[in-house]
Each structure stands twice: as C-alpha cells, then as structure tokens.
Amino acid sequence: MINLISDTVTKPCTDMLNFMLQAEVGDDVFSEDPTVNDLESYCAALFGKEKALFCPSGTMTNQIAIKCHTQPLDEVICDHYSHVYQYETGGYAFNSNVAINLIEGTNGKITAQQIASAIKPVYDWLPISKLVVLENSCNKGGGSYYELDEIKPISDLCKEKGLKLHLDGARLFNVLVETGESTKAVGKLFDSISICISKGLGAPVGSLLIGDADFIKQARRFRKVMGGGMRQAGYLAAACKYALINNVNRLKEDNQKARDLGGLLATLPYVKAVRPVKTNIVIFDLKDEITAEFFLDRMKNEGIIGSAFGPQTVRFVTHLDYTDQMHSEVLNVLNHVSL
Ligand SMILES: *Cc1c(COP(=O)(O)O)cnc(C)c1O
Known about the structure:
Helix content is 42%, strand content 19%. By secondary structure, it is α/β, with parallel strands linked by helices.
C-alpha cells in the first residue's frame, strides 16, 4: 500500500534504529536521562530559548502550554481550523477550564486585526482573553503557512495587550524549508513553541515544548500530572535527535511532491478545486456526485490510501516513506483512474 493518510505513518529507518540502540539513558522523571537532556538543550538553543521539554505527543505539548498560560475562566483565541480546537478532544476545556474564542481566518490563518477585534474587554461576565494560538503550517488549512512578517504584528499586539502567544508548530519545519526563515527568528516572536518530531521528520514518538525557564519548570509539573513523565525516554529522544539532524532539509522533497500532486489534480476532470498547496498537504474537492468514500475506494483498489476530509473532500499527505517510485505510481493512477 502507498500510504498518504498522514505524515505520521513513517517507520524508523535502520540508521535511526541503530542510533536509538546506542543511546545512553537514565530516568527522565529525575531529569537523569542524558539523551533527553541533550535533545531538550538542542531544541531550546535552536529557537534561542532557555529550556525545552520532551513529551510523548503534540497534543500534550499544546495542552501543557494552554495550561501554563491560562487560569480557569480565561479564554484562548485561535482560528476555527486550529488543531487545539478541532483535534485535541476539547482538552482546552477539560485540562484548563478555559473558553475558546474562534476566528474565521483564511485557510487557517488569522490576522492581528482579527485578533484585536476578538480580544474581550474586562467585565465580570466575560472570560479574560489570555492566550493566542497560531498553527504553522495549518493542517486543516491545507498546509498553509504564515511568513514571519505576518506573525510580527500579531506578536507585537499580544505584547501590547498582555496576551501570551503560543505556536503549534507540529509541521513548522515544512514551512521553514520553504521560507528560508530561521528557527531563532521564530523563537523571538512566541512565548512558547510546540514542535512534533513524529510527523514528517520521521521519529516514532516525540514532541517538544520550548520556552523560557520558568515556563518549562511549570510545564514539567503539568507533564507529570498528565501522565507524560517517561523513564528511559532517551531511546525515543535519540530518534528525535537523529530526525532533527538528518531529516529537516529533505522536507523540501515532500513539499515538492505535494505540489506535483496538487498541480496534476487541478487539471483532472473529476476534481472541482484544490486548496493552494504550500507544504506537504494536499486537500481537494471532488466534482459532481463523486464522494470521497467512493474515490478513496477506487484508489485503494490501486494500492493507494488517503483520507476523507469531508463528504467530497480528500486529503493526501506526503512524507519520508513516500518514495519517488511511489510518487510516479500515484501520479499515473490519478491520471487514469476511472470514476
Ligand atoms: C499532529 C498535530 C498535533 C499533535 O498531534 P499528536 O498526534 O498528539 O502528536 C498538533 N498540531 C497539529 C497542527 C498537528 O498536525
């Protein structure tokens, strides 16, 4: 099967597994795993921040960030497509007892102006606007991204109004290979940053939360209470270090393959519209009465799997284990499949 369901489906390569086997480990709940400590320092330095925290998932890093930045009865401002709203089981309410204030942005992207009008005045009967979350790239937005020039006014606004700014950067590196912007420049604009190493970077498990020392100190407590304190986690941290060293630049190839798919799909008779392909996600709508289910069934018969993103909407995600040969095969099938 050629799997385009997500960039989370990758499996560790032999070199990564060997690197993991050689990891020196200890008990990370006591901060005594040298490989975890090394990965955390590496990531903090990458973004010009003081500290980082290794967590089992991006959901946990985002949820800890919301918990650290808010108090009950506060509110989080984000786009209505945001992962923190759509795909984290309503965790903002469950873990942090906060409200959410959704903005209808463009392909998952919101502006400083929209945020400025969303910030609530302080009254007893209103939640207190406390945190803004941006997602870069935006998953449900079809892999759309912000350039730092667009984030700067948002960061300035948050500082002016006393709001915290968190980045859900699950796929941030897919963006940075396109824009050429630096991780340090990203670090300057946000109070906290979450990155996932188990997406396009190809590690089996692992996300990092990055911020200043006080923030990470508190985050460590919340990680523990959420059940995310791992013991000899260095084996997993080694996989993440391997991925960060070896698999960042090659994300360009995934983005290019996604652009190829989007380009072809836009010309095909059964495709109504393709969302602008900016990184490694391709989302498209089918024409006439063709349902996503029917289309995906046909693709499956040809050995290709993707996911339904709506009744007539399909998502393909390119990744490390999607080879050139698979890519030619998919382009060929898309061209010739009869619906
Ligand atoms: C995948 C993802 C996450 C975190 O997902 P986990 O599966 O919990 O690691 C967070 N934000 C975005 C935008 C994502 O795509």
